[in-house]
Here is the input.
Amino acid sequence: MKKIILITILALVVNCSAFTSSKSSDSKTPLLAAYYLLSSSAYSTTCTSSFGTGVADFISKTFTCVTVTVSGTNYIFKTSSLPTYKSYYWGSTSLGYENAFYSNTTGTNYGNPNKILSQSYTITVPITNTSTTAPSAALGTIGVATNGIVIYNDYAAPGDSLATEYYTFDTAQGHPTNTGSYHYHVEPPKITNTDSALVGIAMDGYLIFGKKHDTTTSGLTSFSLAGTSSSTKCVGSGLSTTLPTTWAYKSNYETNTSHTAGTNSYHYHVNNGSEVLGIILSTKLIGAGGTSL
Ligand SMILES: [Zn+2]
Ligand SMILES: [Zn+2]
Here is the structure.
């Protein structure tokens, strides 16, 4: 009987995840994936947050579901990347289950076979980063959202495309990998809806805001999918020299980092493309530094 169950579970394990994530397993590790599927995580509407000595208010008062400490010249973000809201991907036997998906204008969403499982991400972010010369590609998890959910780039699993995977997003525009790692690629409506809300922080230490800089979208660059260009940032109308003033912790950020030295007040925006084109970050970052494990 156990054998039959295991075979059934293995049959459910497919490659439908961002291959660039260090947390993703591939077909070489089906037993590991089966183990993860069996060790389900409990849905909870609450989560634990903690902030160590020296962590600035712009982090401690805007991020939840993360543990943040200072280590040398870096912030260390730790997260299990578990959503505190309902999702199809908690599984039909969970209190967190909802049989609903994000409503698109270009197609109908459907569930992938994966379930949300607790992760143990460590994302190292430089506290002071004046670098504007990022490597051409940053793979895997490249940021963390203000609700503790990790942010992936715009790459999908091999043989797949984000334009295809997009239709497996839940109502919050997130989905899990085959190891249960729940993540975002595109605008997360639980955090931002075509506004200038703080979405999260990229591993290079630069902040990510919604689709607007205060109330405008002018001066924000566009990009192509799969990292052929860059992530979205302010480049015109003087916007690159200031953060959105609508962000309550703008002054705290400026007094706690050197990102704003000179005219380098760089930051990201969610791309203004609709739906699948509204990605949070491409593979191209602004600055160097930062790691994700
Ligand atoms: Zn994905
Ligand atoms: Zn901006």
Q: What stands out?
A: The CA atoms of residues 134 and 287 lie 4 Å apart. The mean pLDDT is 80.
